Amino acid sequence: MPAVRSSPGERAGPHEEARPLVRADRPSPPPPPPPQAESQQSSVHTGSLPRESVRDVIKSLGPRVKECFEKAAPRYPGPQKVTVAFTLQGQGVSGFIEDEEIVDSSIPDPWFQACFLEVLHSATFSAPKGGTVRITYPFAYQPNRDGGP
Q1: I need a surface site. Which of 21, 95, 97, 109 has the fewest CB within 10 A?
Q2: For the segment 36-55, what is each residue's pLDDT rounded down to a tens digit?
Q3: CA-CA distance, 23 to 89, in Å (whole number)?
Q4: CA distance 77 to 113
């Protein structure tokens, strides 16, 4: 009588009993290590900066940010959103941006993203008190529906 396969994990030949495909005497390999977070995401930010201060600086960038959106509008019509993240590092009374990145964008155009980051990098913030601050800021663009400026 030929051997019968008892389960997909076992095999049997015509003259042998069913046996597992995996040998039990070998230990299974250890799981891979978890992915390492990037240093800018894992660093500790201990400073503080008033939200109003950040909002005022971002608001002052409005016309230049709008230009970036408008240059991309013929290729990407309709409402658009971009979220940026950056670290503010204090130097004297001013803060400077480092580790800036676009973390989410409805416009996957590298020229648009470069324009956006260039505008952001031109901003002058107050120095954070007590260290660095990581900021994530969303921007939204709604084109004019009447075609006017």
Answers
A1: 21
A2: 333 334 356 788 889 999 99
A3: 56
A4: 16
